[in-house]
Every structure is written in structure tokens, then in C-alpha cells.
Specification:
By secondary structure, this protein is an alpha/beta fold. Helix content is 24%, strand content 24%. The protein has five helices and seven strands; from the N terminus they run H-E-H-H-H-E-E-E-E-E-H-E. The protein has a six-stranded mixed beta barrel. This is Peptidoglycan-binding protein LysM. It comes from Selenomonas montiformis.
Length: 180
């Protein structure tokens, strides 16, 4: 029940985090474009390595590893992410921010009427329907129980128990997996 379109798509750019970044970093390391270890965070060194690889291979040197760059980098293969147990094969690339009930101006309750707590995300219901379970690498499972005025399109807000935890999460471009 995998969606081949979702499985064949990759986007690694400045600020991206997760398994796809780690995978691209390992390919860049193997081919001599990146020094050090694969940390799963696309920062300036990874962007520069992608750009250098693209220049060396006659690709548009924008420092973004999309499908075309990945096919050359991987020797002609399409990207197929490892999906967590229970995932239905749908991977979404989202901009993720974080929040808590302790944040100034926030309510203690979600749009669904539950308490704001770890394990909840705010979503655009047109993209991720309310009640949908997702897996967020480095965070775990969460349920779409909230919405927000600034949450539009492929943007989620990840709930934490404290303001400090939300600040530590910051803003990230990540892959999330839709669960059954």
C-alpha cells in the first residue's frame, strides 16, 4: 500500500533534518564530497557538498538535493525512505515549529478540546486531517488535534510540555510519516 510518488521523492535543503539528510550525507561522504560524519542536519557544509557534487556532475548547482540530484548521487536509484512500523507509505515534507501551553497567548486546550501536551500537533486540516496519527523522527508519534492561524499548507506545530522544550526544538524542515 505504498504510494510510489511519495516513495520516489526527496528534498534535502538548508535546514532539513532527518533520515533523508543522513542518507544523502552518507552518499556524499562515500563519494568524497563531505568530510566528517552524517548527523542528519543539512547545514552549510552539507549544502556546500551538494553544490560541489552538482557542479562536478553538470547539474544545476543550487545546493538542494531533489529527485534529479539524488538519482545521479545514488547511481540512478529513486529515493525510498525507510518508513516506521505502521506507516502507510505517505511521507510529507513539512516546516515544523514548536509550541506549548506555557507560551504567551496560548490556550491550554487544542482545537479538538484536548490538553496541549507532548504527542499533539497543530496542522492545516486540508493537508493532514484532524485525528491523523503521524511519526516525527526524533520526537515520536503524534496526533493531529490542533489548528492555528499560522498553520497553513505543509507546516505543522509540534506540541511540548514546556516552553523551554518548544524553544529547543525551534524551526525545522523535516519528513513526517502518516501512520495507519
Amino acid at each position: 500500500m505504498h504510494s510510489s510518488a511519495a516513495l520516489a521523492s526527496i528534498l534535502v535543503r538548508d535546514g532539513s533534518r532527518g533520515d533523508s539528510v543522513r542518507h544523502v550525507q552518507n552518499l556524499l561522504i562515500d563519494q568524497g564530497y563531505l568530510d566528517g560524519g552524517a548527523d542528519g542536519i543539512c547545514g552549510p557544509k552539507t549544502v556546500a557538498a551538494i553544490r560541489s557534487f552538482q557542479q562536478s556532475n553538470g547539474l544545476t548547482a543550487d545546493g538542494i538535493c531533489g529527485d534529479a540530484t539524488y538519482r545521479v548521487l545514488s547511481g540512478g536509484r529513486s529515493y525510498e525512505p525507510e518508513t516506521p512500523r505502521g506507516a502507510v507509505g505517505r511521507v510529507l515534507y513539512v516546516s515544523a515549529t514548536a509550541y506549548s501551553a506555557q507560551d504567551p497567548g496560548n490556550s491550554c486546550y487544542t482545537a479538538a478540546g484536548t490538553l496541549v501536551r507532548r504527542g499533539v500537533i497543530a496542522v492545516d486540516p486540508e493537508v493532514i486531517p484532524m485525528g491523523t496519527r503521524v511519526y516525527i523522527p526524533g520526537y515520536g508519534e503524534a496526533v493531529a488535534e490542533d489548528t492555528g492561524g499560522a498553520i497553513r499548507g505543509h507546516h505543522i506545530d509540534v506540541a511540548f510540555d514546556t516552553h523551554g522544550e518548544a524553544l529547543a526544538f525551534g524551526r525545522r524542515n523535516i519528513e513526517v510519516y502518516i501512520l495507519e
